[in-house]
Amino acid sequence: MKDGPDISRIGQLIGDPARANILSALMSGKALTATELAQEAGVTLQTTSGHLAKLADGGLIRMRKQGRHRYYALTDDEVAGVLENLMHLAAMKGHLRTRTGPRDPALRHARICYDHLAGDKGIALYDALIQQGHLQETGDELSLTRSGESFVEEFGISLEEIQSNRRPLCRQCLDWSERRNHLAGTLGKAILDQMLERNWAKREVNSRIIQFSREGERQFTALLAKQN
Amino acid sequence: MKDGPDISRIGQLIGDPARANILSALMSGKALTATELAQEAGVTLQTTSGHLAKLADGGLIRMRKQGRHRYYALTDDEVAGVLENLMHLAAMKGHLRTRTGPRDPALRHARICYDHLAGDKGIALYDALIQQGHLQETGDELSLTRSGESFVEEFGISLEEIQSNRRPLCRQCLDWSERRNHLAGTLGKAILDQMLERNWAKREVNSRIIQFSREGERQFTALLAKQN
DNA sequence: TCTATGCTTCGGCTATGGTCGAACTATGAA
DNA sequence: TTCATAGTTCGACCATAGCCGAAGCATAGA
User: Fold this and answer.
1) pTM surpassing 0.80?
2) Domain covering B7-75, topology
3) Chain B residue with minimal CA distance to A86?
4) Which backbone phi and psi does B136 adopt, to 5 degrees?
């Protein structure tokens, strides 16, 4: 007699490339329409519709009707957390979708990786946080130090808010253009969100490129140079 | 251009019921032979052999030759952690393999759930730890309190050891015979291991049943009754 | 060497499920 | 009402992959 949770059903849902693309796209935290997701998944709208129904049935995503649009999003932070873990595992085991990094120099420079900052800029941020003693590496683990906590709060991020959920606060994410680590987790997302909110940078439409303004570039550099 | 880790490959591996059974069986932490795993998976040896090759190729399990046996085990704690997250998510979303709990009364009383204690005994342990203030529930989160830390150390478990890896230290696990929580995570495993080592109980061969000795039963009850 | 056991490989069968074209439903705008 | 856009459902096609029987390796013991 078999008992226990049925992980195969969830695995099966994630196991289809089109559905995995959909879930990856939703990792940004934004709700997207079926048409947008079809674009991301690389299949037709009909096929996408079927996939969305299965994902919703499996409890991984939820739908919100709004006018004639239907917005899809991940059900909760737990789903996002599990997906992030899977991404991390997949990266560790070398399951990358492309062998080479992004070709576009702008993508190499600064891009969004699900919901956090990647590329040169992402690595620079990560290295600076380590160097300033705000983050501490112990093996593969990453933890926020006391000084890091105040740094984060000063930057306008409520620690309370971002650590209240199941998804890890901070973790390494392997950068496939540079083969080095950058910062993922709710903290990685919060920092990028804060930068976008401060208009240091904005996300280009229909692309993963993060475009820094001149002022934003200046502020970013100052942030990294700041001594403890 | 798609980039990023390919979660679909891992999802696909987990997505097959036979492979999911194999992975679940390996969650106990023990290395098992292909024949044993075929039993667990409910398919023939040939089919199992194919599945094992795929899992190994995907980096989820690793093989150790020993004489004419081949022992399979999960690659590392990270894989175990991801599987545990998936189990938790699956339980939350109501994906259970069976609608009813185990029929066998002994199974209801005390059984192994992957690698930790479940059934009446598991729930009793969980409730006692909460009631004694060793564990603290905040929403769905579970954390070890200061008093819990010393309790664990006194019980002969090295906190250092069990929290050095990526898998969560303690987390709730929904008990499908009782529909209540018991303790999972590395702490859950460590406590069960300690009980087995102290000969309070032993695992029946080819079954999930945990058989408590008379003395073990007494010690267990005393442990739960102990005041802070 | 011979035999038993553990496991893998090969080949053929079959079912599952992903895919898209076409038709249908629903909402909003003119 | 009419048209356009967003999305779902249906049906047919087809590739993938799970499955097992049979045969083939490999190791241990006699």
Assistant:
1) no
2) Arc Repressor Mutant, subunit A (1.10.10)
3) B7
4) -125, 130
